[in-house]
Specification:
The complex is a heterodimer of chains A (118) and B (406). By secondary structure, chain A is an alpha+beta fold. Chain A has six helices and three strands. Chain A has a three-stranded antiparallel beta sheet with strand order 1-2-3, covered by helices on one side. Chain A starts with 5 loop residues before the first helix and ends with a helix. The model of chain A has no long low-confidence stretch (mean pLDDT 93). Chain B is α/β, with parallel strands linked by helices and 406 residues long. Helices cover 39% and strands 17% of the residues of chain B. Chain B is built from 14 helices and 17 strands. Chain B has helices at residues 4-8, 36-49, 59-78, 92-107, 126-135, 154-158, 181-190, 210-213, 238-241, 278-294, 296-315, 344-353, 366-371, 388-405, and strands spanning 17-18, 21-22, 24-25, 86-89, 113-117, 138-142, 163-169, 194-198, 217-221, 232-236, 254-257, 262-264, 320-323, 334-339, 356-357, 359-361, 377-381. In chain B, helix 7 (181-190) links the parallel strand 7 (163-169) and strand 8 (194-198). Chain B is globular, with a radius of gyration of 22 Å. The two termini of chain B are 36 Å apart. The chains are: A alpha+beta (118), B alpha/beta (406). Chain A binds chain B through residues 1, 3-4, 9, 12, 32-35, 57-60, 100, 103, and chain B through 19, 342-346, 349-350, 352-353, 360-362, 375-376, 404-405.
């Protein structure tokens, strides 16, 4: 239940960087539950200057994408590339139970595909 | 209704708190809980009688063999079959693969047709998809209406002289719909097709009789009917056995082996290669005893009452849409619904936080979900130890879903 605490629900109901997907993008889906996240980045002088996502899914995948985009915006690409799956889960500020790990890191998986192209 | 409080005392697992809340276990379509009679039967077997079955001349092997074969006799009687028509397998999935391979591959030819439905569990669909591809046969599926109810009239149109197999579920694991196998079997018989019944969801909840259903093959799952996991059975009608080849080959299924050739054992041994799941059969046998004491007609009556109670309560929740028939005469205690504002996984997790165990996802019926344009649904399913209190707890927890996610 803690997973549905206020700040996470806020990211679900009012996702940040949502709607427009700029630059190099990748769409990642979790076919078993239908979650879908398309994430895109614009990098200039080694820095992430634009980031956005769209898609549909559960509260955890939406909040996960919102938290992730907030985290990487303005960061150095080299730092974004180093971000691990565990670190993406830590953005929730609470332990993600194993059954929801895929939801929580769907956007991070999309991010891995995007940064490969930079 | 059944005496739920008395029954619950037989299920030690139910007596626990989940996140500090009373456990309302409503995931019975996935697996049932086990009464202590089943747990003890398995434990007693290992404490006193464990040995490999058959071919052993010592006392323990004799006892293990006797109990294993008694389990077969008991299960056969439970579904109205003969003991030499019941083959133990791991689960219903294995039973259906066995039929599709050991019968299907040797009796179908190019241009033949297989009729099934869009609401089948993947286990009663993919073996037929594969068989159709392998043999150049055609797989035709009866559809559903917008509420997910089978269009029964389509069977008449789809079953033709080309039909060799009609494979249907007896009760949907997603919509809870009870499928009138008997009348479908009549159509199949007219054209000489074999009838394969997936009874994984019906055997635990309704009286099931292979003669009444007029089927050639039927599969059931032990763990959904109070038994342990890893045991199930497939009914092979005696008259069909002569048309079948073995499924797996190896030890236990032969009568004579020479360096280059082998002869198959007679009877059901032919389909039970390798050391069987003796503990599973003994546990399942104890489960059948337990259900026989309650009486399957009483189990059905109990669940019908409970389903009606749940449907009435859930109908009052505006944002929730139930899939499948609403008439309890046509459905069992599997109730699947869609939440209009939230994903099924979020619904299920919030229900869990209130001690309510349900399932979310596509329930291994992706074609049905695609047809209804649904990604995932939430499913609550009842059994003999569930009472109105469990439904009330579900309804109260759904109010929390609304509060948190809306």
């Amino acid at each position: 239940m803690d997973l549905y605490r206020q700040n996470i629900l806020d990211h679900y109901k009012h996702p940040r960087n949502f709607g427009k997907v700029p630059g190099v993008k990748h769409k990642e889906t979790n076919s078993s539950c239908g979650d879908e996240v398309e994430l895109g980045l614009v990098v200039k002088n080694g820095q992430v200057i634009k980031v956005g996502f769209k898609g549909q899914g559960c509260a955890i995948s939406t909040a996960g994408a919102s938290l992730l985009t907030e985290q990487i915006k303005g960061k150095k690409l080299s730092a974004v590339k180093k971000m691990t799956e565990i670190e993406a889960q830590r953005l929730f500020g609470i332990k993600v139970n194993p059954a929801r790990k895929k939801c929580a890191t769907l956007a991070w998986v999309a991010l891995q595909h995007v940064v490969k192209n930079y | 209704m059944l005496k739920v409080n008395k029954i619950r005392r037989d299920f030690p697992i139910l007596n626990q708190k989940i996140h500090g809340k009373r456990l309302a276990y409503l995931d019975n379509a996935a697996t049932s809980q086990k009464p202590k009679q089943v747990i003890e039967a398995i434990s007693n077997y290992y404490r006193h009688d464990n040995a490999n079955v058959h071919r052993g001349l010592h006392q323990l092997s004799e006892r293990a063999s006797e109990q294993y074969e008694q389990a077969r006799v008991k299960l056969a009687k439970f579904i109205g079959a003969l003991p030499n028509e019941v083959v133990f397998v791991r689960n219903a999935t294995e039973g259906l693969n066995l039929v599709a391979q050991a019968w299907g591959e040797f009796n179908l030819k190019r241009g033949d047709e297989i009729v099934s439905t869009i609401l089948e569990h993947h286990s009663n669909l993919i073996p037929w998809q594969r068989l159709a591809k392998l043999k150049g046969a055609k797989l035709k599926l009866v559809g559903v209406d917008k509420n997910g109810c089978l269009k029964l009239e389509e069977f008449k149109r789809l079953i033709t002289k080309k039909t060799k197999v009609v494979a249907v579920t007896n009760m949907s694991n997603t919509t809870g719909e009870i499928v009138p196998v008997e009348s479908i079997a009549k159509l199949a018989k007219k054209v000489g097709a074999v009838v394969v019944v997936d009874a994984a969801q019906s055997t635990p909840h309704l009286p099931v009789n292979v003669n009444k259903l007029k089927c050639d093959f039927l599969v059931l799952s032990g763990h959904k009917m109070l038994g342990p996991m890893g045991i199930g059975a497939v009914y092979l009608k005696l008259q069909r056995q002569g048309q079948m080849e073995p499924y797996m080959v190896g030890g236990g299924m032969i009568s004579r082996v020479e360096s280059q050739t082998a002869q198959w054992a007679a009877g059901v041994d032919k389909w039970e290669a390798g050391t069987p799941n003796v503990e599973g059969a003994i546990g399942l046998s104890a489960a059948v005893d337990y259900l026989n004491v309650l009486g399957m007609a009483n189990v059905r009556k109990h669940e019908k009452t409970l389903a009606q109670y749940a449907l009435n309560k859930l109908a009052k929740i505006k944002w929730l849409k139930i899939i499948g028939p609403l008439d309890v005469a046509r459905r069992g205690g599997v109730i699947t619904f869609v939440c209009k504002f939230a994903h099924a996984h979020d619904v299920a997790q919030i229900l869990d936080s209130e001690g309510v165990a349900v399932r979310s996802g596509h329930h291994c019926t992706m074609p049905l979900h695609l047809k209804l344009k649904l990604v995932s649904t939430t499913r609550a399913s009842v059994y003999i130890y569930n009472g109105k209190d469990d439904i009330d707890q579900l309804v109260a927890a759904l109010k929390k879903v609304e509060k948190v996610l809306f």
